Prior knowledge:
mainly alpha, 7 helices, flat
Amino acid sequence: MGTAGNVVPVSSHQLQVSREVESLDPQPSARSGSGQETSKQKTDRQLIELLNELRVVLPGAQVLLGFLLTVPFATRFGQVSHHDRVALFICLLFTAVGTILLMAPSVYHRLRWEQGGKQDVVEVAHVMFLAGTASLAFGIAVALFLVADVLFGTAAGVVAGGVVAVVVLLSWYITPLVRGREARVRNEE
C-alpha cells in the first residue's frame, strides 16, 4: 500500500539513463543472481568502455591534426627556421599516426562485424589505443615545443615540451600503472 510519503520523484532523464544502462547489460538476470559477469558480458563491457574512451580522445586528436595541416599555408610560415619546420613535420607525423591509430579500433571492429572473436577485437583495439595515445602525446609535446620555440626561443621550447611530456607520462601512464598495482584499488569496482 503506497502513500505519498513513499513516492520518490524521478525525472524523465533519470528514467532514460536507467533504461540505457539496463540495455547495455546483455544478460541482466545473469548478473543479478551471482554478482559475477560472464565472459561474454565482460568482453561486451570492455568493448563498450573502449569505444567510449575513443569518443573522448579522438575529437581532440582530430582538431590538433586539422590545425597542424593548415600551418604550412599560413602567410608567415616562410619565415620559420629550418629546425622549426622539422619540428612541425615531426609533430604532424606523430599526430597523424596517433589519430589514425585512435580511429583504427572502430575500423577493425567494423571489418570484423558479425565474425565472432570479440575478445580479439578488444585486445587489438586496446593495443591500438595505447599506441595511438603514445604517438599523440609525443605530437602534443612537440607542438608545445614548436610554439614556445617560435615565441620565446629554443630553451623555452625545450621546457614547454618537457613539462607537457612529464604531465602526460604522469597522468596517462605512470599513475594508472602504479595505482593498478595496489590491491585496495584493484578490489574496488
